[in-house]
Amino acid sequence: MRAVVFDLDGTLVNTTGLILNTYVETIRSLGRGDVTTYDILSNFNIGPTPVILERFLGRPILPQDLDAYYVAYEAAISRLQPFPRVAGMLKQLHRKGYRLGLFTSATRRAVNLVLPRTGLDGHFGAIVAGDEVTHSKPAPDGLEIVCRRLGVRTEEAAYVGDAEVDVACARNARVLGVQAVWGSASVIFAGDHLVANQPDEIIALIESASHAVLK
């Protein structure tokens, strides 16, 4: 195993709740008053922010619609921090020589706000955002692009994410999947992926998987 790719929201940073609230606030301000966080959550994986806004507004979105979302989003992440032990885990992976990447359903604009705000910028040798791929997760496209940019084959990489769509994306890309359950209380999804209860379990899990492949 030569590379580890991460999801962002709910995996490295605890943004899921604030993102749901930001969508609700924005969509209501744009005239759709009956939307709830449950509605957003039910459609969370249909695509990046423009796709979600279009779904609920029922029309093509305008630049000012996106601006309204990001004004609310930037205010919401003003005190955002990574999950405990995430920064240390990334540093340890670097020290051990792993190449690190990021593939997220978030837009590039959101990524560029979150990474500097949380001190996680500079860790990743390749980043692909949700609005930079034609097919959203669980399609493997973005994950495959990250692996190519890191200079590794997919079978030499692991993908760490908290959502079922992340596990499915790893499986479709033939990447080692690792479900991160250190965020919100989550069920363990069915499948042959690994499960990490805390960020500092990642290295041991990946090294164990590498040894198993070599045997």
Number of helices: 9
Helix content class: 40-55%
Shape type: globular
Low-pLDDT segments: none
* Helix and strand run: EHHHHHEHEHEHEEH
Strand segment tally: 6
Query: Termini, distance in Å?
Result: 14 Å
Sketch the major β-sheet. Answer: 6 strands, parallel
Strands ordered across the widest β-sheet: 3-2-1-4-5-6
Assess the beta-strand content as a share of residues.
5-15%
Mean pLDDT across all amino acids: 93
Rg from alpha-carbon coordinates: 17 Å
Keywords for this entry:
9 helices; 45% helix; 6 strands
SSE blueprint:
Elements lengths: L2 E4 L9 H14 L7 H6 L6 H9 L5 H14 L9 H10 L3 E5 L4 H11 L7 E3 L12 H10 L6 E5 L2 H10 L2 E5 L13 E3 L5 H13 L1
Helix pairs in contact: 1-4
Would you kindly provide a written description of the structure presented here, covering whatever features stand out?
The radius of gyration is 17 Å and the shape is globular. Helix content is 45%, strand content 12%. It has helices at 16-29, 37-42, 49-57, 63-76, 86-95, 108-118, 141-150, 164-173, 202-214; strands at residues 3-6, 99-103, 126-128, 157-161, 176-180, 194-196. It has a 6-stranded parallel beta sheet with strand order 3-2-1-4-5-6, sandwiched between helices. The model has no long low-confidence stretch (mean pLDDT 93). The protein is built from 9 helices and 6 strands, in the order βαααααβαβαβαββα.
Summarize the structure.
The protein is an alpha/beta fold and 215 residues long. It is 45% helix and 12% strand. α1 packs across α4.
